[in-house]
Amino acid sequence: MNQAIIKRLFSYLRQDKSALIAAMIFALFSVGTNLYAPLLIGDIIDDITNQIPFDEIIQRLILLILLYCIASLATWLMMLFSNRVAFTFSYKLRKALIKKLELLPISYYDTHDHGDIMTRFSNDIELLSDGLIQALSTLLSGAVTIIAVVFFMLNINLTMTIIVILCAPFTFLVAKFIASHSHKFFIAQANDSGKINAFTQEMLQGIHTLKLFNQEKKACEQFQALNDQLYVSGKNSQFYGSLVNPSTRLVTNGAYTIVGISATFLALMGKITMGNISSFLIYSNTFAKPFNEISGVMTQLQAALAGAQRVFALLDMPQEDNEAKSELKTCQGHIEFKAVSFGYEPNHLLMNHLSLDIPAGNRIAVVGKTGAGKTTLINLIMRFYELNDGQILLDGVDIAKLSREQLRAHFGMVLQDTYLGEDTIRNIIAYGKREAGDDEIISAAKESGAHEFIIKLPQGYQTVIHNHSFLSQGQRQLLSVTRVMLMNPQILILDEATSNMDTRSEVHVNIAMEKLMKNKTSFVIAHRLSTILNSDQILVMEQGNIIEQGTHEELLQKQGAYASLYQSQFKAAQAS
Questions:
Q1: Taking 50 as the threshold, does the pLDDT of residue 299 lie above it?
Q2: What sign does the dihedral 59-61-62-66 (CA atoms) show?
Q3: In whole angstroms, how far apart are CA 567 and each of 199, 213, 457, 525?
Q4: What span, in angstroms and rounded, lies between the C-alpha atoms of 55 and 44?
């Protein structure tokens, strides 16, 4: 699993080759100058021992200082380009993620916590970026250091070099053993972090409901349970991760001790000078340093790989096929269901061979109890979900053969929960028609009745609002209606658009929607039957299927489900 992830990570890293090559070049400079310095130190020690003239020693000292200055500059440049590679990587990965989210079906968002998705954009990619910055600099300098140090050590003494090299595999094996056993804990930590972020987002979104029902304590207890779970997985991952560095240092310190003992015997035998011993001990320590540094960043690397696994899991999710096989440039609004079967779960159908013919320009009301399938009917027309069987035709064209963009360009929606986003009122109105000019926008606002309250705002059409702004529900719905009015689509969907309003706001919005629906195919989902009396057809749904169909008068005469529903609402209105 790790090898596949690492290979995939490098495919992203290679996209910034210039910075990667620059980092490698400066790594060579940094390591080369740092490794030449111990030779000078050994020579200086031998010069002092052999009483070489002081002027020559000073020259070597100046050269040593110059080498360390060059090494520091090269190290800084290596880190600079390593950081650039990591940040470019994060940028491109986020870009790939947001592109993927555009292509995922609605069903993915229905079955995955939004907070967990956000965690993959933030925490997981940050872990990846931090891990890559550390890993790149460590691996680049480490690989060059190991190769170069072996060369320098061989020039000093073969026996001690063999001792150092033979100890190296033990360091690697210890680090690999601990890392392989700790990876599962880092995966658990990343998943638990996603869960706690998802719960926190849900709790903040429902804070008014929590306080209304005095459920703050219970929510805190649920949060604490998730927090405890994250604490345990985090503690386990950090515990095993922290074992790597001390374990590898124990091995390298043992090797360092053996080298020191060997050097003592060789010096007594007159086969090595004190300067060479000093140089070799520095090289021995330098040789072990990359192994210790790699083991030191192993914890970060494990966390980064866990984050990468979650990010790539999202990127690998099946996406919608959006290839257009047919084209529909103009739309009249004639919709036909042909033996449509659908279920949110493949083995549990909600609709079974539903057939329906809706002429262009008709106003269709869809009524029924909660869960009857009203919203599902709309979701299928919009291709938010794919059919199990059957066809839906728009002006005789199977909508499954149209691209989703082309299909949805003919629709306008006004929903119960209005999403406006954070922008100026002008841009919010032009959300579905970015090229619209100011005159078009103002004209649409006047027609909907929104212009009157917009011009009273501090900056008028340039007033910036967000999804939880100061606007009333009625004003927000008027903006939503204005947005659709500007688009001027041929098919409209109005889903409980006035259910959360006071009577006065409802009157204003209904007037605007009457203008909007003129000469258009319209689907109106409403619980209050008084708002749909003038519909061309009323569809009564139950358990995903249409059980009655007709005008208001026709359905009352049938004395069926619609009549019963209407009479119960009428009596309730009289009682109030």
A1: yes
A2: positive
A3: 42, 33, 43, 18
A4: 12
Question: What is the DSSP annotation of 201-222?
Answer: HHHHHTHHHHHHTT-HHHHHHH
Residue 357 in tokens: 């013919």
Residue among 461, 421, 459, 457 nearest 438 (CA): 461
How many CB atoms neighbour CB 504 within 10 A? 9
The identity of residue 522, as a single letter, is S
The size of the chain, in residues, is 576
Residues 6 or more apart in contact with residue 366 via CB below 8 angstroms = 374, 377, 378, 523, 524, 525, 538, 539, 541
pLDDT score recorded for residue 21: 83
Of the chain, the percentage scoring pLDDT greater than 70 comes to: 81
- Checking if the pLDDT of 336 tops 90, the result is yes
Token representation of residue 457: 């705002």
Which residue(s) pair with 143 in the sheet? Answer: none
Question: Which pLDDT tens digit goes with each residue over 125-140?
Answer: 877 777 766 666 676 6
Q: Report the chain's mean pLDDT, rounded to a whole number.
A: 78
The residues with which 27 forms a beta bridge, in sequence order, are none
Say which CATH class 82-315 falls into: mainly alpha
pLDDT recorded at residue 512: 77
What pLDDT shows up at residue 204? 67
Residue 148, H or E segment: helix 125-156
CATH topology for the 335-575 domain: Rossmann fold (3.40.50)
Domain boundaries along the sequence of the chain: 82-315, 335-575
